[in-house]
Design a protein that fits this description.
Elements (H helix, E strand, L loop, with lengths): L1 H15 L8 H9 L14 H6 L2 E4 L8 E4 L2 H27 L5 H18 L1 H8 L14 H14 L5 H12 L4 H31 L1 H5 L1 H20 L2 H7 L6 H8 L2 H7 L35 E2 L16 E7 L4 H17 L4 E7 L9 H11 L5 E3 L4 H5 L7 E5 L5 E6 L4 H15 L24 E2 L19 E3 L10 E10 L4 E3 L3 E17 L2 E7 L2 E8 L4 E20 L4 E7 L1
Parallel strand pairs: 4-5, 5-6
Antiparallel strand pairs: 1-2, 3-6, 4-7, 7-8, 9-17, 10-11, 11-12, 11-13, 12-17, 13-16, 13-17, 14-15, 14-16
């Protein structure tokens, strides 16, 4: 658990200084430096507003004694509220909302409303006194109560939760499934504390500035109004997704640090399937280990919507395959990484089926369209997948195996024990060696054919990464800020696109799962790979231009499918432009 706590703590520290936090920092800064609502603070000769703005309030003193100033505890109240809000609603929010039958976005709307109320309270003192009334029964020696600051923190905690990396993703999934244990609670608390440290430092800086800068003392009322208006403006910006567009213009300066902390080998093992203790033994093994190990019993194939490639589409039970070596392959049909792995699986199925190898594909969808049985059936046929395929639409089996990657391969021995797994592409020769070793262990007399020895594409380090055309998942986008779910006119930037950057021109409707082409829709990117591909749906044509020269025209029809845009023998760098007919839907760009 100590390792998990350290991962959560460091993950929280990184999240608190990431671009997604920037919109709330001015609010934390100003709210920590402004005091409470004006009210009488004893006969001191200084107004309450002046005292509050200076970062302290005046306490009533015995007759004849000078008044005493109490420290402004608003920074602690704001950050405490934020941490409590994050921890509680991330773990229990989905469960409570589902039990009460409330709308899924009620937490966000509540946070926005609370932010507006706090802003109004800073502008209009009677509103702040009304907000502080629920806290009035709490014994306090200070005249200035911190109730509104705590309420502000509660609202901010709900609004900043979407800043997610692997740590927060693990916490969120556990909360969504209602499978909360001591490890999840420890990870959540550690993450919240890590997040609180930089925010508290920033809030204390705001208080310090309020204490030292003369403007905070002489213009306290004006600063309170400014802070209130800023909070209201932030609420509106969040409501209309303006902050997301702003964040996209900033470099993701914490990405490298987040990968080192949250996506290293140790973190993967700690976070994968964290909320399910039934498969804890999988943590014994490492991704792509160079020897067979005992990783615990293979979890069952559960929550399967339906099956393909089995007699009568009947389900497959791993227990019925004892005595065989089983390769459980997590994949999805539109994933280019999975498609590149498919030829190796076909080779292994042909070479080793008679020797006792059985492959089971677990189709775990990335997109909603990949849940449709007909689409998956078409994808399996095009890829030459003839082994049984389980449609894991709710990701139940995915979670059982602590999986986080497409593709991922788990080798199960003849006794039903997981002995090896490999996340992502590569190491095919090593995986084949493990298959052969397990087959010999199951039957020492087996006569194995020569290794398949398929050539492997070694372009991995500098290949352009997969790019999702999604308002929440797109990477490398530059140009006109994206507007969610509304037809908008975009323009290419007035400069050449750098490598691994994508841009839009013409009319597009940018959605969470796909971008829909409108009038004169164009898409451009600069990439490095042997080939470029795009998942498309709808009816129409796409004209492909490479370095300004038209090279092909694609005809798109009906269900989402992967279309080859370019195909060269060697890896190269090129500028790609696509001109799409109106109504076509584009999901993801992939590269081979």
């Amino acid at each position: 658990m100590l390792t998990l706590v350290l991962i959560g703590l460091l993950g929280g520290l990184i999240t608190a200084v990431s671009p997604c936090i920037l919109p709330v920092l001015p609010v934390v800064f100003l709210a920590s430096g402004t005091g409470g609502a004006p009210e009488r603070a004893g006969n001191t000769g200084r107004s309450f507003a002046d005292t509050a703005a200076a970062g302290s309030v005046l306490l009533e003193a015995p007759p004849g004694a000078p008044p005493r100033a109490a420290r402004n505890r608003r920074p602690y109240a704001v950050v405490t509220g934020l941490v409590l809000s994050f921890s509680f609603f991330t773990l229990l929010g989905v469960t409570i909302i589902s039990a009460l039958g409330l709308p899924e976005d009620i937490l966000r709307h509540t946070g926005l409303a609370l932010l507006v109320l706090i802003g109004l309270g800073l502008v209009f003192p009677p509103v702040e006194r009304l907000l502080e009334r629920p806290f009035s029964r709490i014994p306090q020696r200070q005249v200035n109560k911190e109730g509104s600051a705590l309420a502000l923190g509660l609202g901010l905690g709900v609004l900043y939760v979407p800043c997610a990396g692997p740590v927060l993703a693990a916490i969120t999934v556990a909360g969504a499934r209602g499978e909360i244990n001591a490890d999840i609670v420890a990870l959540t608390v550690a993450f919240a504390v890590g997040t609180a440290i930089p925010l508290l430092a920033f809030a204390l800086t705001g208080r310090r500035v309020a204490e030292r800068v003369a403007a905070f003392r002489t213009r306290a009322r004006a600063l309170r109004i400014t802070a209130g208006l800023l909070m209201i403006a932030l609420a509106l910006a969040l409501a209309f997704d303006v902050t997301t567009a702003l964040q996209r213009t900033l470099p993701d300066y914490t990405a490298a640090a987040q990968r080192k902390v949250e996506d290293n080998d140790t973190a993967r093992q700690e976070l994968s399937g964290l909320y399910d203790n039934s498969n804890k033994a999988l943590s014994r093994c490492e991704d792509g280990a160079d020897e067979l190990r005992s990783c615990g019993q293979a979890p069952p194939l559960e929550g399967i919507d339906s099956w393909l490639n089995t007699p009568g589409d009947r389900p497959v039970d791993l227990k019925d395959l004892r005595g065989k070596v089983v390769l459980v392959d997590f994949w999805t049909y539109s994933c280019i990484n999975c498609q590149r792995a498919a030829p190796h699986l076909r080779d292994w199925d042909r070479a080793y089926r008679n020797a006792g190898l059985r492959i089971i594909g677990v189709h775990s969808p990335e997109f909603a369209f990949e849940k449709k049985r007909g689409n998956v059936a078409d994808g399996t046929r095009k890829l030459g997948v003839t082994w049984p395929v389980a449609l894991d639409n709710e990701l139940t089996t995915w979670n059982n195996y602590r999986n986080r990657f497409w593709p991922a391969k788990y080798l199960v021995d003849a006794d039903g024990t997981v002995r090896y797994f490999k996340f992502g592409e590569g190491q095919y020769d090593q995986t084949e060696t493990m298959i052969r070793d397990l087959l010999r262990q199951a039957d020492p007399t087996v006569d194995l054919p020569n290794p398949t020895g398929r050539a492997v594409d070694d372009l991995t380090e500098d290949r352009t990464p997969e790019t999702y055309l999604s308002t929440q998942r797109i990477n490398g986008y530059i140009g006109t800020p994206l507007v969610s779910d509304k037809p908008t006119t975009y323009r290419f930037p007035n400069r050449p696109l750098p490598l691994n950057r994508v841009s839009l021109d013409g009319t597009w409707t940018a959605g969470y799962e796909h971008f829909t082409a409108g009038r004169d829709a164009r898409l451009a990117l600069t990439y490095r790979a042997k080939n470029a591909n795009l998942v498309l749906a709808g009816t129409g044509k796409v004209t492909v231009l490479v370095n300004g020269t038209p090279t092909r025209t694609l005809t798109v029809s009906d269900a989402p499918a992967l279309y080859r845009l370019t195909d060269e023998e060697n890896a190269h760098t090129a500028h790609l432009e696509l001109r799409l007919d109106e109504g076509l839907r584009a999901y993801a760009l992939t590269f081979g």
